[in-house]
Each structure stands twice: as structure tokens, then as C-alpha cells.
Q: What sequence folds into this?
């Protein structure tokens, strides 16, 4: 009887594996034959040949944007030029280790920002920074890591910029975060109160710069970005002491993200922990809001289990359905109502307050593939692929009715879709 039960179990397991294999092959064949995906990949690669500006509406080089398209760029552009563009960021590193958002050729500086930066070692460029955000250092670390991984050019770490090697500058930037943007009580880094991953503060005021209206807080996006950057640094260094330092810091950070920001009961991340009061009325329940972008980056950082990923995906899909948004690129839901926001801040479903951003939706697609939820990823990526073809390009974000908005030729969108397609194809080749 016992042998009979064992053989029955083995037979059922074999049938299940056969069925799964058959389904995988069917999906793999569909992916490899997908003409829309192939066309979007071709369009993305063509866009990468146009340089490093974030998009047609942004004639600057941004670290947070470059981080999301540098891998595709390394396949389509002169790697020596990419290297020089990465090194340029370090000319504008501040005396405390702080890194900027980016830079622009001096002759292209036309927007009249009073808060700009100059460098004696890069006189032909102007630097800039949206100070409400805390992802500049971590974005550049990740971009450097991806460049090295793609090109094998580890020599960039020893390259001296203004008398200091790049790797030492990366370490210096982490020290800035720990000295200037760190809440010891929580063991997490801080920033101004923004919409999820965004760089627009909810109080309005100076909008992208810290001012007297700013409420300092902690969110999952900034800290997940740091966790990824620490893992990257551990991979980049050959110094065992440094490697252990980065790994220990990352482990502690991931534990604190779960301890303070993950709402186990609701299977979602808390939008903000406030260090000195909230900017919102007492009767406003901010924790009803789901942060889609920060959640995707937290999955990349390894914060969530597979079951938790499935739970947040269910939330995201339901939020897209309830909002009527075009895709899983929906930034957050429900949106912040206008009556709790400051002046000059986006209305519901505008820009970062519930706009639909492929730039982050594509990252969620990537994480679904990595976590073996390929069928779900393939279904959910279709609206993002189709609108690239329909609108003949990559737009920064989309309105609730699907109308494209913001910068055209937005390389961040092209980069995340291009990487998603690469991951789809890799999986399909392994399962065909």
C-alpha cells in the first residue's frame, strides 16, 4: 500500500511537471514570435543611439534616468563616451560627499534655476539637483555597477576625478547619506515628503527643493535604492573589509525596511514615517495609498518574499482596474486629493500623483519575470508595449485616459522596456 501511494505521488508530480513544461513552452513560443515586442525593442535601441539626454523635454543628463537605460545604451553606443558621461557626475560632487541629479552643457542651461552648481574641473558644464529626493547617490552607484557589468571596464573605479578615485567617491557618497540623510532611530535614510519615488514635495513651495514647508520623512523607495546600491558596492570592491561593511549595512537596512515600512496585515508598504509631524490633516489616512513604484524597487532590493510579491501584485492589478489607468505603470492609488496638498502640486492622476509611468511599471514587469511570474508579466506588459507603437515613441507618462504626456523620447521608459524584453527573451529561450 505504501509503495502504491509513493508511485501515485510520483506519477502526479510527473504529470504536473509535464503540464507546467507544456505551458511554459507555449508562452515561450508566443514571446519569441511577438512582433510588437520586437518592434518596441528596435525602437528602444534606436533611441539609445541619440545620446544621454533623458528625453526631448530634458536637455540634461540625469543619474536616476541614466541608471535605467545605461545597460541598453552600452549595447548601442560608444562605451568610451558613456564612461566620460559617468565620470562627469563626480566633478560636481560636493565637499560633504553629496552627489547631484545631473549636469548640462553650459550653453544649454536655459531654465534660470538659481540653485545651480559649478565645478573648477568641469567649467563647460552646470550641475543641478532636486534636493527633496534622496536617490542621487544610489542611482549613480547603480549606474556605475551596470556599466562595469556590461562592459567589464572595472578600471573606471580607479579613475581619478579631481584628485580622488571613483570608488573612493562612491564610498564618500554613502558617508554623505549616513551623515546628512539618516534617521538613527529607524536605521533608515530620509528625504522630503514626495509622491512615492517622485521628486516633487507634497507641500508645494519650492516644489523640487527643500524649503521652510518641507516635512522630513522616510519612504520605501529611497531605502530600497540604497539597499540595491550597497549590494552593488559589495560586488564592485575587491577589499574584503569594505565588502563585509556593505553586506552588513545592506542586511541591516533590509531588516529595518521590513520592520518599519512593511505593513504585514495589509500586505503593502507604509507611504511615510514622519520625523517631525505630517503635512496632512489629522483625518487623512495616508496609509490607504499604495505606492507602486517604491514597491517595485523594494522587490528588486529583495525585501519581499514570493508570496508577498504575489500579494502586492494583486493589489496593483486591482488598483489599475478601479482607477481605470491604462497600465500597471499607475504610480499610486488612491491618489492624493487636491484638498490635502499644497499649492503648485499635481491634481489627482496628474504627473507623479497617479500618472501612469512606464518608467516604473516596466521595473515591476522585470521583477515579475525574475520571480518566475512570467505569464502575469507578459499579460501586464501588453498595454505598455502597444502604446509605444500607437504613439510612435516612448513618452514620460500617460494620463488616466491613455493620452501621452511629458517628455517625448523618454529614455527611461525605453530603457526599462528594453530590459524587460531582454528578460522575456532569455526566459523564452530557456523554455522553448
A:
Amino acid at each position: 500500500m505504501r509503495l502504491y501511494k509513493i508511485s501515485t505521488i510520483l506519477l502526479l508530480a510527473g504529470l504536473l511537471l509535464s503540464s507546467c513544461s507544456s505551458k511554459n513552452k507555449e508562452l515561450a513560443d508566443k514571446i519569441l514570435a511577438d512582433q510588437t515586442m520586437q518592434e518596441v525593442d528596435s525602437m528602444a535601441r534606436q533611441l539609445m543611439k541619440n545620446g544621454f539626454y533623458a528625453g526631448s523635454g530634458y536637455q540634461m543628463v540625469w543619474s536616476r534616468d541614466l541608471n535605467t537605460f545605461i545597460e541598453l545604451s552600452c549595447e548601442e553606443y560608444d562605451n568610451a563616451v558613456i564612461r566620460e558621461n559617468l565620470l562627469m557626475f563626480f566633478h560636481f560632487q560636493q565637499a560633504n560627499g553629496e552627489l547631484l541629479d545631473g549636469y548640462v552643457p553650459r550653453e544649454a542651461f536655459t531654465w534660470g534655476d538659481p540653485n545651480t552648481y559649478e565645478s573648477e574641473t568641469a567649467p563647460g558644464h552646470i550641475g543641478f539637483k532636486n534636493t527633496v529626493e534622496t536617490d542621487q547617490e544610489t542611482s549613480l552607484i547603480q549606474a556605475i555597477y551596470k556599466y562595469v557589468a556590461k562592459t567589464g571596464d572595472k578600471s573606471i573605479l580607479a579613475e581619478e576625478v579631481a584628485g580622488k578615485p571613483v570608488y573612493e567617491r562612491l564610498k564618500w557618497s554613502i558617508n554623505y547619506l549616513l551623515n546628512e540623510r539618516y534617521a538613527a532611530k529607524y536605521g533608515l535614510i530620509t528625504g522630503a515628503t514626495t509622491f512615492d519615488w517622485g521628486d516633487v514635495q507634497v507641500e508645494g513651495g519650492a516644489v523640487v527643493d527643500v524649503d521652510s514647508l518641507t516635512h522630513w520623512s522616510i519612504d520605501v523607495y529611497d531605502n530600497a535604492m540604497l539597499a540595491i546600491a550597497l549590494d552593488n558596492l559589495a560586488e564592485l570592491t575587491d577589499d574584503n573589509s569594505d565588502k563585509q561593511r556593505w553586506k552588513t549595512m545592506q542586511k541591516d537596512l533590509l531588516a529595518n525596511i521590513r520592520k518599519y515600512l512593511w505593513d504585514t496585515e495589509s500586505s503593502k508598504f507604509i507611504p511615510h514615517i514622519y520625523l517631525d509631524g505630517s503635512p496632512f490633516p489629522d483625518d487623512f489616512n495616508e496609509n490607504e495609498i499604495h505606492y507602486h513604484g517604491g514597491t517595485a524597487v523594494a522587490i528588486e532590493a529583495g525585501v519581499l518574499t514570493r508570496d508577498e510579491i504575489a500579494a502586492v501584485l494583486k493589489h496593483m492589478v486591482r488598483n489599475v482596474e478601479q482607477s481605470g489607468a491604462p497600465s500597471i505603470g499607475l504610480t499610486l492609488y488612491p491618489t492624493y486629493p487636491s484638498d490635502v496638498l499644497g499649492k503648485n502640486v499635481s491634481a489627482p492622476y496628474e504627473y507623479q500623483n497617479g500618472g501612469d509611468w512606464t518608467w516604473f511599471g516596466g521595473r515591476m514587469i522585470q521583477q515579475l519575470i525574475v520571480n518566475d511570474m512570467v505569464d502575469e508579466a507578459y499579460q501586464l506588459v501588453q498595454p505598455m508595449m502597444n502604446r509605444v507603437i500607437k504613439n510612435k515613441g516612448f513618452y514620460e507618462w500617460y494620463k488616466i485616459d491613455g493620452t501621452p504626456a511629458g517628455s517625448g523620447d523618454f529614455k527611461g521608459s525605453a530603457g526599462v522596456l528594453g530590459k524587460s524584453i531582454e528578460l522575456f527573451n532569455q526566459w523564452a529561450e530557456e523554455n522553448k
